[in-house]
Amino acid sequence: MEKDQKLNFDTLRSHLWKAADILRGHIDAADYKNYIFGLLFLKRISDVFDEEAERILKETGDKKAAYEDSDNHDFFVPKKAIWDYLKTLTQNLGEAINKANDLIEEENPETLEGVLTPVDFNDKDRLPDHILSQLITHFSQIRLRNSDLEKADILGDAYEYLIGQFASSAGKKGGEFYTPKEVVILLVDLLDPQEKMRIYDPTCGSGGMLVQTVQHLKEHHGNPKNISLFGQEINVGTWAICKMNLLLHGLTNAQIKRGDTLGEPKFLESGGKLKQFDIVIANPPFSLKNWGYERAGNDPFKRFRFGVPPQGYADYAFVQHMIASTTPTGKVGVVLPHGALFRGGAEGKIRKGIIEEDLIEAVIGLPSKLFYGAGIPACLMILNKKKSKQRQGNILFIYGANDYQEGKKQNKLRPDDHIKIMNAFWNYQTIDKYCRVVPLSEVRENDYNLNITRYIDATEEEAPVDIQKTIDELKILKKEYNEIEEKVFGYLKELKYKV
Predict the structure, then answer these.
(1) DSSP-derived 3-state class of residue 371
(2) Where are the alpha helices (DSSP H) in 24-92?
(3) Does 374 have pLDDT greater than 70?
């Protein structure tokens, strides 16, 4: 890249994707993200450190203040972690990168502790020195200082693009850390986060839903800094990716904790009660098996007041955690497998309790094959602890399963599909074969079954058959057949064939 040329999104996206080509054949595709994101982040904070140091040196003439005073930098980068030092090395590169990450975490414990070190670059069987050397040379070709970027948010945007691409390549594993962008946008728009709100994702994955809440504010002319973000993620590697994602989007104040949300929720008030939020949003793992059923009966946070879910299905464990984590005027948006709408037993009892408290505002059916590694159709459930008067005592059902763009591996929601769902949600009216406002009395009659097709007849009507027209067409076809047969037999007789 030319020194004076600004780095744009397309160039950065292409450059990062080419880094994957260097790794191809050496490590599994599912692991590309760990190494590429790690090096991208290391290069970014090193370049910004250099940029800040040069500015301080120019302004003060004090080299020590510029390069050794950590108070003068957003992230302090020691000498042996600076990119220009790393690119001079030719041997034991993995060990040097690991050491650089250790040093950076030690110098920036509040924001980066545990973020860079989960990835081990010092595995010479998978990442020999010549491969790491190629990667370092490749990343050295782009400058990631603030002054080098065409727009401030292109790093975060490119990072999210790559997360999506790697999720696609990783197949089923991709679904563990990534929710398709169009589903995230839809769920955030339905919840409509506003300034001064506290937003919480208890299974935050790579952070896409939290990032999108900020994007939603920007699009609606709100102040993206006037919102508080919270998240928890059980997988250490995915947690690190989430932290980097938020930092590359400039969201330095987001609080992202590590740990098992159901077994050990991290966001607590001083008295040990769950912290509550204005909006709780999540795509929990579908029907998680080993979720802590044994401990749920004595839950110290009293989350399971509607009942303890079965051992093999954690869906309503997450839903009840989300309800308990929501303020008395808050909203919940959650992605669920369709089975959670109609399964009986303990789940049926829980569903009955939630419905009778009039918490469910809408149930929205989505097309199949939207999610990586999960061909089953899913739904969105919107819960609202303070429904408007018009919506009280009702549930809106939306059948969005037929509206999508078909893909080879994954289907996608199109912008028009998004608009159609949003219009149905906000207008809150019945549209034949698509959406319907259903009173709770009818849901009771159906034994609290929320299967969407119980309330919306989505079957296509067959066109009426005109019997007389069909008979007339058959007569014409028969006549044409006889004429052709007679002509063919005539030709055969001329050729002396017996017919």
Answers:
(1) strand
(2) 32-60, 63-67, 83-86
(3) no
Residue 463 DSSP class: P
- Residues 6 or more apart whose CB falls under 8 angstroms from that of 357 comprise none
Other beta carbons within 10 Å of 246 = 25
Coil, strand or helix at 253: coil
Confidence of residue 177 (pLDDT cuts 50, 70, 90): low
Where exactly are the structural domains of the chain? 9-151, 174-454, 465-499
Full DSSP string of 174-241: GGGT---HHHHHHHHHHH---TT-EEEETT-TTSHHHHHHHHHHHHTT--TTS-EEEEEES-HHHHHH
DSSP designation for 3: T
Q: Is residue 175 scored above 80 in pLDDT?
A: no
Give the C-alpha distances (Å, rounded to integers) separating 411 from 162, 334, 375, 376, 378: 19, 20, 10, 12, 12
Tokens, residue 253: 């104040």
pTM over 0.85: yes
Structure tokens at 499: 């017919």
Q: What is the largest CA-CA distance in the chain?
A: 111
- C-alpha closest to that of 333 among 445, 453, 212: 212
Q: Which fold has domain 174-454?
A: Rossmann fold (3.40.50)
Give pLDDT tens digits for 33-45.
889 999 999 999 9
Fold of 9-151: Ferritin (1.20.1260)
Q: Give bridge partners of residue 497 from the DSSP assignment.
A: none
Q: What is the pLDDT of residues 475-492, one digit of tens each?
A: 888 888 888 877 877 777
For 74-89, the pLDDT digits (tens) are 999 999 999 999 999 9
Instruction: Say how far residue 32 (Cα) sits from the centre of its chain.
Output: 18
Q: Could you tell me what percent of the chain has a pLDDT over 70?
A: 95
Tokens, residue 275: 């912290």
Instruction: Output the CA torsion 79→244→285→410 (10° steps).
Output: -120
- Given a contact cutoff of 8 angstroms between Cβ atoms, the answer to whether 347 and 304 are in contact is no
Cα(263)–Cα(447) distance, rounded to whole angstroms?
Answer: 31
3-state DSSP assignment of residue 268: strand
